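Worked Example 4.2. Consider the chain below.
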Amino acid sequence: MMTLPTYVMRDALKPALLGIGVLLGLVWLLQSLRFLDLVINKGLGLGTFLHLTLLLIPQLLTVILPFGVFIGTSVMLRRWQEDTELTAAFALGRSPAHILRPLLAAALLAVIFGYALFLSILPASTSAFKNLQYQIRTQNAQVLLEEGTFNQLGKNLMIYLRNRTSATTLEQILVHDTRIPTQPVTWYAQRGEITLDADGYPKLALQKGLRQEVGPKQVSMLEFERYNLDIRQSLGQQVMAPRMPEYEEYSLSELRQQATTSNPSRAAELTAEFHKRLLWPLTPLPLVLIACGWLLRPPRRQQSPWRLLVASTLSGFAYLGVMMTLNGMAQNGTLAALYGQWLLPLAGAGLAWFVASKGRIHG
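Applying the procedure from the previous section yields the following structure tokens:
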């Protein structure tokens, strides 16, 4: 026979997992639309597109996971109110604590997963995402060449192509090079191929074309069968310099170490991120307490249970809004907001106790 804690946890986890899945799919789809232009117009492969967008999932989960747990708890308690299961449980001698404990256990599972997400999975996925994004924008320059358009690479190189037969094969190409201002050079080629050199930087191999150079006193023309055009210099220091990691990519120990050696503005961002990774995974616990404070009681006569659900939802969103606001203020160097975040879970628990006690008094 299924025990009450198992029944409560099962009833809470099902809508929580469903809510997390729906929210994650919706937000992931909206975020993926930002990169859709790379597939439609700039030749990025579908596999690379999926890889790039799937790396966003851990970052999205950090926000969606507390929402999902809160939604699951609220939906479960709302359904128990509607089906009078709460009334039946209390009539059998069960106290609110018998229902609260398994809900807190489910929230604790989310907390454990949240710490794994923030301390290990998120830095690794963010680093992989940034590296792939950097590679697409710089080293893999072929994805930036658009058909029927004058594509500007750097300040001194312009490439026009009529057709693209594959991600790396081009047809009917015009290249205008003004890296030497007094001697502009123009290439016309029937075909071209984007390849990578030994260092992984792009070069353009032109085939069957004409090279025209305009000098101070004459114009020279040269036919060629194949010409390797080095375009890495046109991409400038963005390619030549290594990519600097962002603070989201640091581990917890690296955040603490970097905060002590950085300038005050960056140190504030690193310190705020350090505290966020320790505090944000705890969010499901106060959210569950807030939901239970409003909904873990049978509705009074002539009182709509939807009123309690709306109040619970607004309280949960207000809690998350205040937490995000304090984190943003902490990134700007506000010390009171930095440490005030740690009082917020206690404030959420206090709000839940106050609402629950008022409900019992007036019930």
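The CA atoms of residues 330 and 338 lie 5 Å apart. Strands lie at 150-153, 157-164, 169-177, 185-196, 202-214, 219-230. Compare this with Example 4.1 before moving on.
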